[in-house]
């Protein structure tokens, strides 16, 4: 197979089949439909089409037809001029409309797509949450100095919080209810990105999502799954039930759903800007709802929230520069993991990269990264800033690489001395525009359905981000003490597993945009996709390839297993090295990556089928 000289992002080895159909025209003034160019990969022969069960009012976008398979097929989208990869087909298409029909930038598309995901997949993210973003401004643009900026819009702990606030109450108080809620940051983060590389007016990016919330859409396979598995609490709460169980039973795939209350909120934000959430009636509803549920969030907390922008951290990989988000995100340890593995895979390609020895090395590199992660915290509260900076250096990687032996070791060997935080949920989207600008956005409300708190007057679903802090006096299930680096404090941002990523070639041009969801599995999943690309996979195959995961504790390496099963000789060899391998169904979707790359033929995009995502390009 022909490849680039430096095969980090190889040419696709599957020729896509372009879909001649165009999507339905918008019934709304602001958006027009565009086509989805889709390629069938990995043996699937399927194209998105219209759902036969049409409601009285036709949806703006249609679901892919049912397949009878455990999840949607995998699609390789391209070659294109620009692309959007998100976890939902509708949202990918809405973002593409911004790029194609409205001539918007990657950030413009990211704002619409992020808000769309927060509407359609509200179990993952929304304006009641927060996250991190990377923005790459292209050379020779009207937006000033090119480069990659990282935007931290992680939720903060309220001013009345303290290190011991959950010690007597237990973990449940940090997961469900008002005391679990951190100060939301998503809108401030999108606002900062818009100021940096936005072209279209704010209201044109938000109002289409408000109109979708108002007019409604069909419940997707993924939303139906999250309702079925995680949504029983909804039936006991009339505010939630009005949206997700209006007839007394949880909605199922293909049902019609709308969120008129939330639509009014989005319209207010479209007209008034992001500040509408941080003061006035929307803020009143947030504060009163949280405090009525035992929380401590105040108007001052909302009014005082600020996002932080800084140059993205970076590291070398295969002749390219990998940019990502610094602490409290996990981009630094992802860079360390990549640099541990890079020399170990030099000269290998295809299945050679996934042989037993290389798989053992990958597990060990991941463990060293998780050992380092146990020291990560909000750098504004850190006493170990020099240490945090070490984890992304070639020197640190070389030291850990030299410590990889033929056998695995006990947790302390990898530097794990405190509890490994295991978060969950989250969404990610990767966008590359027609000018070479890029946006990589990871947003979350933390656990599935956040704090289980929905504001009745605004429809905002609030995060439970306080659960990402460590709790003094509460050792984890393995007897490890909590990390003092990550105790709650007023204004502090908790540790995050996210790693939004943008890759530049030596000339400073974007050649890849990546990121993922899935809690503590996020940064290893992103690293593995980059390694898969380096070994010759096309972008869809790199995203779809099964993954290993080992975060030191629990003392088990999990392996995704599909219909083809697992090589028993490979499994026996890893077991002989001391690894305890646990297998789980790849269709569970424990982590999901959205990716866009550039090669000599154009732009290629892939959304992870583990979460039923479909990318879009033109």
Brief digest:
By secondary structure, the protein is α+β, with helices and mostly antiparallel strands.
Could you walk me through the main structural features you see in this protein, from its secondary elements to its overall organization?
The protein is built from 16 helices and 22 strands. The protein has helices at residues 89-100, 106-120, 186-197, 202-215, 221-230, 238-244, 260-272, 281-292, 299-303, 331-345, 356-373, 385-390, 394-402, 522-534, 539-544, 568-576, and strands at 39-40, 75-80, 83-85, 130-137, 147-153, 217-218, 256-257, 308-311, 313-317, 320-324, 427-432, 438-444, 453-454, 461-462, 501-504, 510-517, 548-549, 557-561, 581-585, 592-599, 602-607, 616-617. With 618 residues, it is of the alpha+beta class. This is Glutathione hydrolase. It comes from Cutaneotrichosporon cavernicola. One of its GO terms (molecular function) is glutathione hydrolase activity. The chain crosses the membrane at residues 23-44.
Write the layout of secondary structure elements.
Blueprint: E1 39-40, E2 75-80, E3 83-85, H1 89-100, H2 106-120, E4 130-137, E5 147-153, H3 186-197, H4 202-215, E6 217-218, H5 221-230, H6 238-244, E7 256-257, H7 260-272, H8 281-292, H9 299-303, E8 308-311, E9 313-317, E10 320-324, H10 331-345, H11 356-373, H12 385-390, H13 394-402, E11 427-432, E12 438-444, E13 453-454, E14 461-462, E15 501-504, E16 510-517, H14 522-534, H15 539-544, E17 548-549, E18 557-561, H16 568-576, E19 581-585, E20 592-599, E21 602-607, E22 616-617
Parallel strand pairs: 18-19
Antiparallel strand pairs: 1-2, 2-21, 3-11, 3-22, 4-5, 4-12, 5-8, 6-7, 9-10, 10-15, 11-12, 13-14, 15-16, 16-20, 17-18, 20-21
Helix pairs in contact: 1-2, 2-3, 2-4, 4-7, 10-11, 10-13, 10-14, 11-16
């Amino acid at each position: 197979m022909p490849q680039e000289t430096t095969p980090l992002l190889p040419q696709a080895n599957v020729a896509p089949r372009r879909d001649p159909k165009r999507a339905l025209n918008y019934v709304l003034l602001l958006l027009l439909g565009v086509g989805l160019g889709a390629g069938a990969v990995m043996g699937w022969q399927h194209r998105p089409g219209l759902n036969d069960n049409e409601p009285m009012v036709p949806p703006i976008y249609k679901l892919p037809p049912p397949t009878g398979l455990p999840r949607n097929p995998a699609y390789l989208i391209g070659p294109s001029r620009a692309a959007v990869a998100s976890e939902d087909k509708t949202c990918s298409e809405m973002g593409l409309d911004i790029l194609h029909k409205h001539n918007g930038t990657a950030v413009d598309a990211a704002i619409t797509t992020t808000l769309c995901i927060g509407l359609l997949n509200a179990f993952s993210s929304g304006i009641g949450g927060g996250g991190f973003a990377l923005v790459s401004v292209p050379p020779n643009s009207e937006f000033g100095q090119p480069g990659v900026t990282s935007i931290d819009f992680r939720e903060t702990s309220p001013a009345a919080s303290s290190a011991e606030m959950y010690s007597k109450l237990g973990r449940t108080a940090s997961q469900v209810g008002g005391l679990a809620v951190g100060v939301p940051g998503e809108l401030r983060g999108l606002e900062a990105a818009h100021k940096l590389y936005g072209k279209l007016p704010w209201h044109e990016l938000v109002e289409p999502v408000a109109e979708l919330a108002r007019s409604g859409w069909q419940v997707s396979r993924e939303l139906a799954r999250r309702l079925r598995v995680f949504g029983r609490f909804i039936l006991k709460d009339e505010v939630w039930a009005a949206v997700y169980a209006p007839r007394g039973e949880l909605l199922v795939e293909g049902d019609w759903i709308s969120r008129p209350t939330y639509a009014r909120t989005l319209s207010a934000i479209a007209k008034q800007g992001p500040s509408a959430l941080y003061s006035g009636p929307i803020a009143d509803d947030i504060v009163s709802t949280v405090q009525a549920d035992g929380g401590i969030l105040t108007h001052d907390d909302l009014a005082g929230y600020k996002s932080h922008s800084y140059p993205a951290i970076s590291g070398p990989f295969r002749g390219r520069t990998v940019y990502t988000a610094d602490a409290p995100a996990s981009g630094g340890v992802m860079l360390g993991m990549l640099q541990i593995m890079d020399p170990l895979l030099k000269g290998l390609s295809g299945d050679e990269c996934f042989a037993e020895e290389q798989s053992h090395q990958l597990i060990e590199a991941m463990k060293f990264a998780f050992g380092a992660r146990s020291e990560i915290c909000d750098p504004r509260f850190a006493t170990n800033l020099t240490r945090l900076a070490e984890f992304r250096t070639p020197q640190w990687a070389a030291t850990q690489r030299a410590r990889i032996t033929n056998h695995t070791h006990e947790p302390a060997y990898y530097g794990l001395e405190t509890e490994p935080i295991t978060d969950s949920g989250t969404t990610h989207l990767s966008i590359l525009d027609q000018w070479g600008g890029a946006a990589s956005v990871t947003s979350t409300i933390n656990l599935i359905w956040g704090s289980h708190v929905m504001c009745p007057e605004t429809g905002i679903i609030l995060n439970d981000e306080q659960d990402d802090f460590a709790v003094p006096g509460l050792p984890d299930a393995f007897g490890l003490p909590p990390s003092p680096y990550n105790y709650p404090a007023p204004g502090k941002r908790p540790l995050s597993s996210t790693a939004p990523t943008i890759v530049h070639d030596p000339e400073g041009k974007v050649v890849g945009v990546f990121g993922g969801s899935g809690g503590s599995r996020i940064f290893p999943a992103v690293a593995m996709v980059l390694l898969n690309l380096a070994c010759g996979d096309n972008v869809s195959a790199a995203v779809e390839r099964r993954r290993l995961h080992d975060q030191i504790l629990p003392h088990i390496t999990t392996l995704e297993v599909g219909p083809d099963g697992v090589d028993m000789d490979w499994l026996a060899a890893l077991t002989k090295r001391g690894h305890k391998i646990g297998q789980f169904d790849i269709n569970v979707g424990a982590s999901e990556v959205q990716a866009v790359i550039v090669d000599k033929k154009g732009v290629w995009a892939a959304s992870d089928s583990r979460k039923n995502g479909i990318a879009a390009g033109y």
